Amino acid sequence: MQLKSVEKFIQTKKNTIFCATLAGMMLFSSGFTMNGFPKNMHRVSVHVDGQTITDMTVQTKPDDIFAKLGVTLGEKDTYEVQTSEDRRRTEISVRRAVPVRISFWGDTQEVMTSARTVGEVMAEYGYNMNEIDVLPGADTPVTEHLDIQLHENAQAAEQRRAREREAERISRGIPRYRAAYTMNASAYLPSDGGGSGITATGIRARRGVVAVDPSVIPLGSRLYIPGYGEAIAADTGGAIVGHTIDLCMESYDEAIQFGRRSVEVYVIE
């Protein structure tokens, strides 16, 4: 009886060890460690609003971690994530957005930003740093209620004026031009002057032939004058000096009606 009891005891021990081994294998295969935690459990620390919230979690997506820890982010809030090499520790730093004021072209708007510098704010809101001067400078740290003043720089201003001139040229039907002048204009008839009707370049005076100062507009230049049309600089005159121009008209009434006025003169290509 004693021998049978010993054999029974040994068999019971074997069964216990086998069950324990089997349970351990099942535990590892199911993703749990010996202390009962999942193998992908890691420590996460969220730095937000001046405090640090630390927890153990299997979550890896920041949004899921924020939801678990009760951290709410605003539309313009941002965060940075740092994970250790063994992926057992994660640090998330939340940067809350603050209001700043941006003034440009006499308009001021208040915006929210979590950018670290003024330059980053400009990039976030689509301003081209090659076209503006900004105060304070681009490297200035962003603080709550910071005033940012923007001004169009000289290069951008000239490019804008060129675009405006081109738009005006197209809208007014002006051909492409290489120079433009504002001139004092008068009118003359083919019979004026010597009465021969022959210009300084030898062509006959007619509508579309104008007298200029050759030191300003070279003879032979093709011109466009709004309200008069295309013309050729083919004549000169004793009174035509500097930014003055004399336009040949077809009749006395037309010349009298035109009188003297300021005109835009485009030297077309």
Structure characteristics:
rod-shaped; alpha/beta; 4-stranded mixed β-sheet; 14 strands; Ubiquitin-like (UB roll)
Quick take:
By secondary structure, the chain is of the alpha/beta class. The chain has 5 helices and 14 strands. The strands form 3 sheets. The protein has a 6-stranded mixed beta barrel.
What sort of overall outline do the alpha carbons produce when their principal axes are compared? rod-shaped
**CATH architecture identity of the largest domain:** Beta Barrel
The CATH class name of the largest domain reads Mainly Beta
User: How much β-strand is present in the residues?
Assistant: 25-35%
**How many DSSP H or I helices?**
5
Structural class: alpha/beta
**Total tally of structural domains:** 3
- Helix share of residues? 25-40%
Specify the oligomeric state: single chain
Corresponding CATH superfamily of the largest domain: RlpA-like domain
Output the radius of gyration.
43 Å
Unreliably modeled segments: 26-34
The tally of beta strands, per DSSP, is 14
CATH topology of the largest domain: Barwin-like endoglucanases
* Distance from first to last alpha carbon: 125 Å
Largest β-sheet summary: 6 strands, mixed, barrel
The succession of helices and strands, N to C, reads HEEHEEEEHEEHEEEEEHE
